[in-house]
Design brief:
The chain is α/β, with parallel strands linked by helices and 251 residues long. The protein is 50% helix and 12% strand. The chain has helices at 17-31, 51-70, 76-88, 97-113, 121-131, 145-154, 167-170, 177-187, 201-210, 226-234, 246-250; strands spanning 5-8, 39-40, 46-47, 136-141, 163-166, 194-198, 214-218, 238-240. It has a 6-stranded parallel β-sheet, sandwiched between helices. A two-stranded antiparallel ribbon has the order 2-3. α6 (145-154) links the parallel β4 (136-141) and β5 (163-166). α1 (17-31) packs across α2 (51-70) and α1 crosses α4 (97-113). The longest helix is centred in the first third of the chain and has 20 residues, at 51-70. The termini are close together. 33% of the residues are buried.
Length: 251
């Protein structure tokens, strides 16, 4: 494979979004005190609900309400409020809009404090640069531009990325071909000369392939089903399990 432009998804491809969320919601719950504990033990110590289970529940709320936002059903702030309300309801806590926003803002501080890159992100970019210093790098992400730029800046990627395209500014979300074509136009390259790497098969890899780019699916957890692998193969999508594999694939 020979490409002049390598484009990446941001969350859970370069940026460790899920790990940051898990740590953020854990620390936020503990900061709220007894209202979010399962109860005291016989010796008076606090019993906390299972961290993994609560992270799964928070993630499910994020997936549900964020896609409502992407579909135009909720505003960006509205999906945050809905996620906060959905999380606290099992604890018997009811929040109005203002309280929901404040609750989410406090959570967000804990999430932001946990922001970091995946361990293989910088080594991947370094390997691509060593392979071909002329390879240009970009990001296509579903989200609000200011928010995603803030992440990229915080984790020190700004100087590595030539263009960052966010669906919130552009007006169309992945896997719509228009967002991939728009990004290629910014780089002044044909889609056939660009590769796109992301952690979601349909949204990222197949979306890119359907737009004429070469799609690469990053299946970090090795959760791909036989049907998904067949679908990827039929679309010409390569599957990797770490970004450390990318330079070899492209080389």
């Amino acid at each position: 494979m020979t490409f002049t432009v390598a484009l990446f998804d941001l969350d859970d491809t370069l940026f460790a979004h899920r790990a940051s969320v898990d740590l953020g919601i854990r620390n936020h719950r503990r900061s709220l005190g007894a209202a979010f504990a399962a109860g005291p033990t016989s010796d008076g110590s606090t019993v906390w609900p299972d961290d993994a289970a609560e992270s799964v529940r928070w993630t499910a709320l994020e997936e549900h309400h964020y896609h409502r936002y992407l579909g135009g059903e909720l505003t960006f702030e509205g999906q945050r409020q809905a996620r906060a309300r959905g999380f606290v309801e099992p604890y018997g806590v009811m929040l109005n809009d203002a309280e929901s926003s404040q609750w989410f803002d406090t959570y967000f501080e804990a999430y932001r404090d946990a922001w970091h890159l995946h361990d293989d992100a910088l080594s991947c970019l370094d390997s691509l640069d060593a392979r071909s210093p002329t390879t240009r790098l970009g990001i296509i992400t579903n989200g609000e531009l200011d928010f995603q730029v803030r992440k990229v800046d915080t984790v020190g990627l700004t100087h590595r990325i030539e263009h960052l395209v966010a669906s919130g500014e552009f007006g169309h979300t992945k896997p719509d071909p228009r967002i991939f074509h728009h990004t290629c136009e910014l780089f002044n390259v044909e889609p056939a000369n660009a590769v796109y790497i992301g952690d979601r098969l349909a949204t990222d890899a197949l979306g890119a392939a359907n737009a004429g780019l070469t799609g690469v699916w990053l299946d970090r957890e090795r959760n791909a089903t036989t049907d998904q692998l067949d679908e990827a193969r039929a679309a010409g999508v390569s599957v990797i399990h770490s970004l450390d594999e990318l330079a070899g694939l492209l080389g």
